[in-house]
Amino acid sequence: MFQSIGIPGLILILIIALVIFGPSKLPEIGKAFGNSLKEFKNATKDIASDDNDNASDKKENPTSSKN
Prior knowledge:
The protein has about 70 residues and is mainly alpha-helical.
């Protein structure tokens, strides 16, 4: 998705962000974005580990149902 942006595109995005938000707001926005990304990664790790735990529980304790 971001492979086609390139360095000039990133510089242009940073300049536009600087004009819109100003130099005093950019560190706050970056910090908030970083914290959000960190929280999202932790949540996805928790979900993945829960799925792995559930899958291993099913393999260890199979239930047989014969009709």
